[in-house]
Amino acid sequence: MIDGRDTPNVSLLDRIAEDFGNAPDVAMGTMFRSPGLRTGGKIFAFLGHNGELIVKLPQDRARRLVDAGTAEHVTMGTRTMRERVAFPAQGNDTATLILWRKVARDAHRYVGSLRRSS
Predict the structure, then answer these.
(1) Which CATH architecture has domain 10-109?
(2) Is the pLDDT of residue 54 over 90?
(3) What kind and span of H or E run contains 85?
(4) What is the reported pTM?
(5) Which DSSP helix (H) or strand (E) runs through 44?
C-alpha cells in the first residue's frame, strides 16, 4: 500500500484492491494525498479524508444514488462534482465491503470506458 495509512478504512481499500489483482490496467495511486485505485492512469476510486469511498460514476447514476440517500455529493473547494460521489462506511466492515466492492467495480468499468472512447 502507498501513503495514506492514517486515512480511515485503508485496510478496506486494500481488500478492494485485491479484487483487481488480475486486472493489468489497475494500480494503486493517490488523489489529493489519499490512497486510491487507478485504471489507465485515471483514478476511479479513492478514500476521502474521513474514510469514505469516493468513486467516479456516470452523472445520472451518481445523482440517483445521492437522491436515494445511498451516496453523498462530493464538493472540492466550492465546486460540487457531478460524477464523483462518496459512500460512507456502513455499520460494519462486511456491509461496507459489499457496497464498496460493487461501486468500485462500476467505477472501474465507467472510467475504463471513458479511456477507450476517447
Answers:
(1) Alpha-Beta Complex (3.90)
(2) yes
(3) strand 79-87
(4) 0.91
(5) strand 42-47
